[in-house]
Input
Amino acid sequence: MAGQERNLADQSRDAIEQGSRSFALASLLFTPDMQRDAHMLYAWCRHCDDVIDGQNLGFFEGDPAAQNDTPEAMQARLAHLQVQTIAALNGEPVEGVEFAAFQQVALAHDMPHQHPLDLLEGFRMDATHYQYTTLQDTLVYCYHVAGVVGVMMAIIMGVDPDDEETLHRAADLGIAFQLTNIARDIVDDAKIGRVYVPADWLEGAGIPGTPAGILDEANRDMLAQVARRLLKEADRYYASSGYGLRRLPWRAAAAVAAARSVYRDIGRLVRQRGPAAWDRRASTSKPRKIWCAGKGLTLAAGASFNRRRALPERGDLWTRVL
Output
């Protein structure tokens, strides 16, 4: 059994090192057990996303346009993921390393079933080509594909599954990450027929709310303005998430703060590049990642001194339905 656990942990670690270097770096700050569980949860999330999109560790193999699968095929794959996820949550036999790893983590932390099922609901939105008309629509998607991952990560870091105040902050960080992703990947997403930016924002900027409208290089100046607007919205969720660090164990707070700082820096690059933001994928260099991680550690240290202080109100931020 110990050998099997090491195998699951090793393969999960490999998945995160290839799929998210930013999170892999930040996760070095976790305790060994927390790091193992975070890697296992990430591996399952990454696997499910890849199955739906026909990718490998978040990247298309071959021509991305050729990967734009039919909704029927995507929904069939989603149905299989749901069957395996429910089996894992119920302690029943499952297929594959990723589901075995997820099962181990979910059962060890008594993970509420609603959270992993909420993630799959986000993939259903992709499978059904959900239309994002307003910011509210986009935020719902951000919660389902990223905010709920923050919630599950918080639980494996030791947050009580009933501590909604802290879990809201964890969701805020996931939403901020996803808004940053959307801003960075607007053009790449349009190339495979997906538009996550609110259509009313695009149309208000004079851009047709379609993939063709986004890909029209004549619209790049206005598209850069829309991206900046998305990142301004992300900043509100980054700010709210920072207060949640007070409720995490020190090493968990350090890891989360480092990841938060590194990922937020991607938004800085998108803003800085303006209309050229999509000429090449925005990513931070390793030295910059280390600098950002250090900045995150300072934030985590400050949070530890304020551990006993009440968290401020979240204002009008989008809030998940309990």
About this structure: DSSP finds 14 helices and no strands in the chain. Residues 7 and 213 are 47 Å apart (CA to CA).
